[in-house]
């Protein structure tokens, strides 16, 4: 018997591609929603054909077998179903409107206005189903002077202020190493969708959730905006932080340790941990701001202590003294991390027809429930794998009708 998940019974039509959109629907699927990925009949979503690839022989930058699929699709397509539909044809858009009449949520991340130009704007979809929720994810939102600007993650990091404060003061600005805008935007999208569902319980009507990647990334900068309001222009500080010190990455004998002491209590515990009680009464380090002004002296003391130890020795000792510290782990390290493994965050990645892919792991579900556990427990689907199921169950189309639609290039 399949366990009940929080969003069991919710039907989501997925028009997304690339990363921010598919990550949104990945979370919804992992939480139990029936996510129906709508793909063009001629090859499906582009991510199916983008390297790196994975299949029965493992992962590679080029296809090793005819069944290999883009690794990004196998990773982001989990817990979803696939149907094919040509939304560039009148018959296809008509079928999509019929599907909307049976759905709860539509998620899309086309450029702003694209859905309306396809004849599938929110007023049209809501006419098919007044309770329908549309979530539109775009670089700059559905309104405003930059709504038509094209964007990918680096563009949004630049336009939101993240790039301006990332890097070192004597070098050009750089983007954050992770696709932070693409991967945090889905969190705002899921929050918006769940809020709209709650609102629907009160009003009986759906909503249009407008999620701008720039808005969400700008929302990630509270401390910098707070210091700016106090008259301090945010600068690139490398691994340091505008609010105080120590706040940096320090080199151990075999790697790097991240350490920060944000509160006065943290500072006192750090001094005890590194046996520098002599600094407790030093006026240079008496307050948060004075410690920040003498950052170089603090960093030198901490680096001297860390540099004489291995990463494991330094982190274990610091954490024993309740000082916030952690090893700087690489992606390779993370796949072996015992804590992430214990939390179920390292998952086998599964091919839709060949089962577990040798040597390939994916990211697990980052939300946990005590009584109703959730995981990404279904592989990404083959192209159109659920055509018969979805079109038959939701629209009552039989095999003959589906065969005719396929012959016409509509599904």
Written overview of the protein:
The structure is a single chain. The model has no long low-confidence stretch (mean pLDDT 97). 37% of the residues are buried. The chain has two domains: 11-219 and 342-407, 3-Layer(aba) Sandwich (Rossmann fold); 247-329, formyl-coa transferase, domain 3 (2-Layer Sandwich), CATH 3.30.1540.10. Helix 1 crosses helix 7. It contains 17 helices and 14 strands. A six-stranded parallel beta sheet has the order 6-2-1-7-8-9, with helices on both faces. Helix content is 37%, strand content 17%. The chain has 411 residues and is an alpha/beta fold.
What number of domains?
2
What number is the mean pLDDT?
97
CATH architecture of the largest domain: 3-Layer(aba) Sandwich
Tally of helical segments: 17
CATH superfamily of the largest domain: Crotonobetainyl-coa:carnitine coa-transferase, domain 1
Helix proportion? 25-40%
CATH topology of the largest domain: Rossmann fold
By CATH reckoning, the class of the largest domain would read Alpha Beta
Question: Strand order, biggest sheet?
Answer: 6-2-1-7-8-9
Secondary structure layout:
Blueprint: E1 11-14, H1 20-30, E2 34-39, E3 53-55, E4 58-60, E5 69-70, H2 71-76, E6 80-84, H3 90-100, E7 105-108, H4 114-117, H5 122-128, E8 133-138, H6 153-160, H7 180-203, E9 208-212, H8 213-218, H9 222-229, E10 247-252, E11 255-260, H10 264-273, H11 288-293, H12 295-306, H13 311-320, E12 325-327, H14 331-335, H15 338-342, E13 346-351, E14 355-363, H16 387-395, H17 399-407
Parallel strand pairs: 1-2, 1-7, 2-6, 7-8, 8-9
Antiparallel strand pairs: 3-4, 3-5, 10-11, 11-12, 13-14
Helix pairs in contact: 1-7
